[in-house]
Structures are given as structure tokens and as C-alpha cells.
Amino acid sequence: MNICAPFAGIVHYRVDPGTRVETGTIVATIEAVKLDAPLLAPGPGIVGQKLCADYADVEGGQAVLTLEEG
């Protein structure tokens, strides 16, 4: 499952690949002009791949992280 940015901004990861997360865990944040939006794990699982570099510019709707069942 892909976790996507809600709007354009800078992504900052809070977890590393291989980390087990529970529903609602903050896995990353998207920062735009004085606004931070947390990206939450939609369900329990294991963090897969980071799809872009930490502190990279991302577009709204862009997948930034994968979450695998586990």
C-alpha cells in the first residue's frame, strides 16, 4: 500500500524501512509554508520502501512511502 502526500511540500520521514507500525503511527510529515501535515499509517504493518529522499520536494498525491502487511 502506498502512503501519499496530501499536498505539495517537503517530506520528512519519521520511521525507517523495516519498522513495524500500528494504525495511526506518524510515519512522515509534509511541510509547506508554515503548515505541517502528519502522514499516518492507515493500518498495522511494516514500513517498506521510501519512495523519495528525506527532505525532498513532493507533489500533492505523490506516493512517498510503502506499507506492507505484517
UniProtKB/TrEMBL annotation:
Q: Which domain of life is it from?
A: Bacteria
What CDD domains does the annotation carry? biotinyl_domain
Q: Where does the record place the Lipoyl-binding domain? A: 9-66
* Identification of the protein by name: Lipoyl-binding domain-containing protein
The scientific name of the source species is Corynebacterium argentoratense DSM 44202
